[in-house]
Each structure stands twice: as C-alpha cells, then as structure tokens.
Amino acid sequence: MRTRTVVFAAILIAVLCALPLAAKADCPAILKFLAKKAVGVTCVQSADLRTNNAATTPSDNSITTFADGSPLPGRVGAFTPTTDRAVISNGPAPTATVVPGIQVNGWFKDDPSHEARFLLRFPDNWNGKLVVAGASGTRGEFNGDFAWSDYVVSQGYAYASQNKGALNFYLPANGQADPLACRLNPSSATYVHFYDNDPQEPFTGWTQYMVKATVLAQKAIRVNYQRSPQRTYAVGTSNGGYQVRRVLEAAPKLYDGGVDWEGTFIDPRGPNILIDLPPAIRNFPHYMASKFDANSQAYKNILAAGYPPDIVNPSVTPADSLWKRYADSFWEVTACQWQKRFDPAYDTYRGGLDKYDYLSRLQVPGLLRRVQAVATTGKIGKPLITVAGTMDALLPTDRGARAYEARVLAYRKEPDKSPAYRLYEVQNGNHIEAYVNLFPQLAVIQPHAQHAFDLLVNYVENHAPLPESQCIPKGGSISQNPAQRGHCANLFVP
User: Fold this and answer.
1) Cα separations in angstroms, 483 against 222, 425, 456, 468, 473
2) Domain coverage including residue 312
3) How many CB atoms lie within 10 A of CB 270?
4) What whole-number distance in Å separates Cα of residue 174 and Cα of residue 320?
5) Would you give the end-to-end CA distance of the chain in angstroms?
6) In the chain, is it the N or the C terminus that has fewer CB atoms within a 10 Å radius of its CB?
C-alpha cells in the first residue's frame, strides 16, 4: 500500500509540474530582486507579449544615453529594436491568441561600458520552461522577437535575450577620420562605428552575456513563479547561433539543448569570416562588370571560395542579383568590422579588404590569440541542432554549417554517449529571409528552425527520435525518413 501511495504521489507531482503556472505578475518583487543586478529597469504587465506591437518592441533610437546617463555619441543606430526584429525574419510567427504577462527591460549593472542590456518576458500561463535567445549581427535584445519570442511565449515559455554586451552603431561626425569606422559598402560615403569594435567590448563578451542573461532569467523566474525552470533551451540566429554553440560548449550545465540557425563558425586556422569574405569582395566588381556572366573567371572564383551560385534578376534596371545584395549590404562592412576587431593594425581601406590575407598575417602579434579566444570548438555538452540555408552567401554552408558539423563529429569518441547533434540544411534557404521577396526561388528558414526547436524539446523531454541530419528539399520539411540524408546534393534548385 505504501508503495502505491509513493508512486501515486510521484505521478501527481509530475502532472502538476507539467501544467501551466499562473504568474503573480509581481513587478515590485522583480524590481527588488534586480536592484543590485541591474539599472534602468522597467517592469510592466503586458496585455500581449507578442511583438508585432509598439508596446512590446520599442521604437528605433528611443534610447539616447548609456546606462550611466551619459549621452550617446550619436542619436541614430545605437538602439534599433523595430529594425532588429525584422533583420533575421520575414515576419512574425503566426500565433492564435494573446499572451498576457510581464515584460522586463534593463541594463546589467556590473558592465563597465554601460552598454549591456537584457530582456525578460514571463507569460501568465507559464509552462515551467525558459528559452534564452542570442542576437544576430551587431543587433540587440529585441532581435529575436519575430523569429523566436512570439513562437515560444505563445507556447507558455518564459523568454530572455540580451545584446551581447554592446549597443549597435553610431554615425561618427567624420567617419573617414575614425580609425574604427567602416563604410557601408564600396560605393558608400557613409561610415558607421560599431560599438562592439571598441576596446572594452571584446567578442568574448558574446558568450559571457548569453550566460549572464540565462542565470539572471533563471533567478528572476524563481522570484516571479516561486519555482525554478524545469528546462532551459538556447536559440539564436547568425551571431546569435554562434552564441548558442558557444554556451553549449562552455557552460552546458545551464542548458538542456539548443537550436542554432545559421550560426557563425570561427576556426583560427580557417574557415572564418576573415578568410572567406575577401575573395568575394575582390572578385565581385569584375563579375558585375561582366554583366553577371556565369562563365566569367570572377564568377568561378567566388564559387571556388565556397559560395553558393548567384541568382540574377535581369528584368529590372539595373539588373539585380543575390550576390549584389550581399555585396551592397554585408560583405565589405562585415569584413571591416571583424578585421578592425581582430587585426586593427591593418590599414582597412589603403591596404584594401579585397587584398586582406588573414593566413599570411598570423605573424601579427595577438591576431591568432584573439581569434582563438572566440573559436567554436565543436565540444558541445548538450544536444544541438543546426539549421542552415544552402544559399547562404554571407556564411556559406560549406564554410560554416558543414564545417561546424565536422568539428562536432571530430570530437565524438563515443557517439552513443555524446550529446545529439543534427544539421538540417534548407535547400534554397539564404541568410536574409526578406530576400525571398526579391528572389522567389529562395526558401524561408524560420518555420524549419521553429520546427527543429519543437523536435529538440520532444527529444529531450520525451525521448522521441530526433530525425537524422538531412537535406530539407525545396518545399519540404524535416522528416523522420528523409529522401536525402546528410548534405544537400544541390545547393540551388530553380
């Protein structure tokens, strides 16, 4: 009889733990808890935590000072929540009902640069679990609003995010005279200064602030719900995907698993952005001069550097192409940002980013050490899923997702005992979701990344089979019985 009672009690506890928990909506308690950990904190009861509204996602440039009250060097670009949420997403995840709860924003108090920010969302009908998001590019804590927050808070998850410890950018008064400023593209006279290139903002902070946000959120949940989260998952896109990889390598005990969507891969000996972008920057002008000739040597050189094929739209004037979009918006400015962070001794524009040769510059004191400090090792301690598009022309699949997969598998001495890892390649997916509106041949990745999250949760919590690594064919979905296991044979299907 005693055994039956114990078993029944255990089952009852398990059932109760699985039920959504009502939040106390106790902002005073949250504010008291954060008093010694944060500054400039706001805590509000929201009628709807979904983010397609101004009450949840603030307007761009609505912050004009650092956390200590000192003025920002420029009013434009430092804080861009509305823009950030659309950078990695082609629109908010469709959800059925409103999600009432608490939203908390603030600055980490112990950050000497007074730039590090966090975001917490606690739904009233909490499912007992937490999702922590990374942030792409130089974007901030609202970056994952459409791609991740809407999707998970609607399922009852608490949500946390952060800005990697730094604000976004500002426009210096004289950009050409600013040693850390980067021009927007080769034809631009506009220069931007990225805050995360400042000496006090090393890229190692990206991992540290993902961890800090996780710990802060877990403790704040305890205050708000009187119970710690049962599970904690990490999600992120691009540099946010890099954050997911790094925390599962460096601090796996904090998490139960993660999904990285097109995460940035960094190997001090290559591949990495400093090796991969210069060939594209160097050859693209010649390819464009050839009128986008796929038989030109410049085109072949870019393909040989690991990039997916171009998509050309000749029906507009001037002719448009996928590569041109990346060349105009991402290739040079990204290479500049990374070069100035890791190899500031190089003269960016006199030496030329098209001529930058990272491997030959490894003799420069400190360069290798700085890159090694932020390398993705592949030594994950919890289950991880990578979702990546085969048409990614910023972080090409061969040089990014597949390279990281190889690194993970290289460290697997006992596959049956190692954390699960999967790579789901989205055929025709690219790095910028909105480009599907310009090039309808492309596929969106967001639904597959969200599906991967659900599969991960089911695997972790219910021991459900996790679909093997596979090519998600154009128009298809992740399958338990994929037609194409492993990598996509074709990066592009017209």
Assistant:
1) 45, 13, 21, 11, 9
2) 273-372
3) 15
4) 32
5) 67
6) N
Say whether both 149 and 78 belong to one domain: yes
Q: Is the backbone peptide bond immediately before 285 cis, with ω within 30 degrees of 0?
A: no
When mean pLDDT is compared across 48-57, 292-301, 364-373, the lowest value belongs to 48-57
Last residue of a domain, one of 330, 351, 372: 372
Nearest to 171 by CA among 83, 79, 74, 66: 74
Is the pTM higher than 0.70? The answer reads yes
Question: CA angle at residue 51 from 478 to 240, to 5 degrees?
Answer: 55
Residue 169 structure tokens = 């950018």
List the structure tokens of 257: 């698993």
CB environment 42-55: b (16+ within 10 A), e (fewer):
ebeebebbbbeeee
pLDDT single digits (tens) 448-466? 999 999 999 999 999 999 9
User: Which residue shows structure tokens 């290739």?
Assistant: 331
Which two three-digit tokens encode residue 300?
């072949």
- Domain membership flag for residue 355: yes
Instruction: State the residue for tokens 């908390």.
Output: 104
Q: Which two tokens stand for residue 473?
A: 């064919």
Distance CA 239, CA 411 (A): 23
Q: Are 216 and 287 in the same domain?
A: no
Q: Is residue 431 part of a domain?
A: no
Instruction: Look at residue 40 and tell me if it is in a domain.
Output: yes
Q: Please indicate, yes or no, whether residues 45 and 124 belong to a single structural domain of this protein.
A: yes
For residues 35 and 144, membership in a common domain is answered with yes
Say whether both 189 and 49 belong to one domain: yes
Residue range 118-173, pLDDT digits in tens: 999 999 999 999 999 999 999 999 999 999 999 999 999 999 999 999 999 999 99
Report residue 471: phi and psi, to 5°.
-90, 120
- Give CA torsion, residues 34, 37, 38, 39, to 10 deg: 100
Among candidate residues 372, 388, 409, the one where a domain is terminated: 372
Query: pLDDT band at 314, cuts 50/70/90?
Result: confident
- Distance from C-alpha of 89 to C-alpha of 80, rounded to nearest angstrom: 15
* CB-CB neighbours of 309 under 10 Å: 17
Distance CA 145, CA 119 (A): 11
Q: How many domains does the chain have?
A: 2
Distances (CA, A) of 449 to 262, 268, 429, 444, 472: 10, 28, 11, 10, 11
Say yes or no: 212 and 283 in one domain: no
* Confidence at residue 417, expressed as pLDDT on a 0 to 100 scale: 76
